[in-house]
Amino acid sequence: MARAENPAMAGVTREDLRKVVDSFYAEVRQDERLGPVFASAVGDGWGPHLERMTEFWSTVALGTRTFKGNVYQKHVELSEQHDVVPEHFLRWITLWHKHTAALLPAPAAEELQATAAGIGRNLFYGFFQQFAHFVMQDGVAVDYVSV
């Protein structure tokens, strides 16, 4: 059964999402807090990772169903290698807001930002056994509130 098209994503293509993914992860890789976590998790496999993340967001946003995997488990496994702290989530949400806002029409950016906040909330629970609502100020996640 095909998913109904989301009006917020009208006109957005897989290539548009690829640009967001590429620019987002380019900054993640340089980020003082996120860079080391992703470097150890991804290693030299950035090409396949970027492709996989493009398929993830294409599945989520465009209903392509081209992504298969357990996102939750993959991220929770990071806690075995890194001391993941709430600030990692704040930075991730902030960078995602920045790149979606810069590269997509406002309705699509807002839709993907809300989706990322939901994903972040659930992953936050996996790490800290509490759900988080991310407090945004001018596109920056400045804090979180346990909900």
Describe this structure in words.
- It is a single chain.
- Helix content is 61%, strand content 9%.
- It has 147 residues and is mostly helical.
- A two-stranded antiparallel ribbon has the order 1-2.
- Helix 1 packs across helix 2 (34-42), helix 1 crosses helix 3 and helix 1 crosses helix 5 (86-103).
- The longest helix has 23 residues, at 106-128.
Could you give a short description of this structure?
The chain has helices spanning 14-30, 34-42, 46-62, 71-76, 86-103, 106-128, and strands at residues 132-137, 140-146. With 147 residues, it is mainly alpha-helical. The radius of gyration is 15 Å and the shape is globular.
Question: What shape does the CA trace take?
Answer: globular
Helix content: 55-70%
Helix run count: 6
Q: What does the largest sheet look like?
A: 2 strands, antiparallel
What structural class do the secondary elements suggest?
Answer: mainly alpha
Oligomer classification? single chain
% residues in beta strands = 5-15%
Trace the largest sheet across and list its strands.
1-2
**Order of helix and strand elements from N to C terminus:** HHHHHHEE
What is the rounded Rg? 15 Å
The overall strand count is 2
Report low-confidence residues grouped into runs of 5 or more.
none
The first-to-last residue Cα distance is 34 Å
For the residues shown, what is the average pLDDT?
93
